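Lecture 7 notes: from sequence to structure.

We start with a single chain of 152 residues. Read the sequence below before looking at the structure.
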Amino acid sequence: MSESTAMASDLREYRAAARSTDTFGRVLCNAREQHFVIDGPVWNGCPGEALTPGEAFLAAVAACGVELVQVIAADDGLTVGEIDVRIDGVVDRERPVREDMTVFNRVRMRFAIEGVTDEQATALVEQVGRRCPLYGSVAASAGAFEVEIQTR
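Now the structure, written as tokens:
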């Protein structure tokens, strides 16, 4: 494999778009051919009926965790059962982590992985942290980032 081919295969590009709708605070989003609605939260005077941006972001972090546990386990020759990732984030505007931008004050993640040992589960989640840019962004920016790993 040439160096340029190897570099190209390591490149991960993501694209998404969003546009306003006729409803204040309702946003039509798309990525590739997938379309979905995100609402601003009610505390901003928005509908808050669909996922809010914060919820969509945290769901994406959790989804990245589930998907990569499966991929990494398969690459390592491990068979995993059900994977459940829960994530909670808190923004306290009265006590900002940074003065120049808003980041989560606290994020807690819980991985529950079936079919592996405690050591294997820990190794899988550590690798998720090295591969998922969303997980890494939260871990690097949140005031407090806590991860709990359970096996079943």
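The longest strand covers residues 83-90. Keep this in mind for problem set 3.
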